[in-house]
Amino acid sequence: MYGVVLVSQFVGMSIALALAMVRGESVPSGNDVLLCVVAGVLGGVGITALYRGLAIGRMGIVAPVTGVLAAVIPVVAGIILEGVPDTAVLVGIGLAVVSVVLVSRVADEGGGRAGLTEALVAGVAIGCFGVAISGISEGQVFSSLTLIRLVQAALVISIVLVTRAAVRPARRLIPVMAVIGVLDMGGNSFYLLAVQTGALAVASVLSSLYPVMTVVLAAIVLHERITRDHAVGISLAAAAIVLIGIGSA
Predict the structure, then answer these.
(1) Which percentage of the chain shows pLDDT scores above 70?
(2) Residue 37 has pLDDT above 90, yes or no
(3) Do the Cβ atoms of 181 and 7 come closer than 8 Å?
(4) How far is CA 231 from CA 106, 119, 218, in A?
(5) Is the CB of residue 190 less than 8 Å from the CB of residue 16?
(6) According to the per-residue pLDDT averaged within each range, which of 91-105, 127-141, 214-228 is highest?
(7) How many other CB atoms are found less than 10 A from the CB of residue 22?
């Protein structure tokens, strides 16, 4: 697991550094440095918990719980900072809470609640990560992401050294890990561009639509069984994200 995180982080950092140089972005300074460090720690914790949750639990549980929390937390931050949002957003938040309860109470022979704790940690950390990077100065995209990736890599290396966990990945998996790093960097880059040009709530909820595809792939590729309560919870999660996005437009 740690090998996956490290390889993907270094690949993403290399891409971000190259793009920052091409764009001629300046090195982050002042408040941006603090935000990048905080975001790096939150992102490192979030992505590590997410990968572990996906590894030991069911994707159909881990992905929606993480996604809903990652969407709701920035919205709550927006309410505190900008006031009460549209009615549709409030309804969406309510549905999101119900969906988390439904999805997390699913327990069967297919894995039960395994990965739920990791999903909750990942969701909170990623949600706070989204809030943190929304404060980065406009125009500071790839240089900031380079610093964030560096912090994340340093955090994971520290964890590995303290816990003495295995970190060396199988050679045959390195190309896949590199692809993960590219896709992860692409997602973060577009998210940061979105929050710099639009509303935090809209960007966060739309980016959190990823669990829908994850669940579909888990059912198709891994043949994970989806119970009725589970399906209702996932459907409410999707509806919540859509409502929050529409109401925040």
Answers:
(1) 88
(2) yes
(3) yes
(4) 10, 18, 13
(5) no
(6) 127-141
(7) 9
Percent of the chain with pLDDT over 90: 14
The conformational region for residue 164 under phi > 0 = left, psi -120 to 50 = alpha, else beta, is left
**Three-state DSSP string of 65-104:** HHHHHHHHHHHHHHHHHHCCCCHHHHHHHHHHHHHHHHHH
Position 107 pLDDT exceeds 60: no
DSSP string across the chain: -HHHHHHHHHHHHHHHHHHHHHHTPPPP-THHHHHHHHHHHHHHHHHHHHHHHHHHS-HHHHHHHHHHHHHHHHHHHHHHHH----HHHHHHHHHHHHHHHHHHT---TTTTTTTHHHHHHHHHHHHHHHHHHTTSPTT--HHHHHHHHHHHHHHHHHHHHHHT------GGGHHHHHHHHHHHHHHHHHHHHHHHHS-HHHHHHHHTTHHHHHHHHHHHHS-----HHHHHHHHHHHHHHHHHHHHH-
pTM across the whole model: 0.77
Averaged confidence pLDDT in the chain: 81
- State the pLDDT at residue 137: 86
Asked whether residue 41 carries a pLDDT value surpassing 90, the answer given is yes
Question: Which pair of structure tokens corresponds to residue 105?
Answer: 């109470």
The residue assigned the tokens 């919540």 is: 240
Every domain of the chain and the residues it spans: 2-248
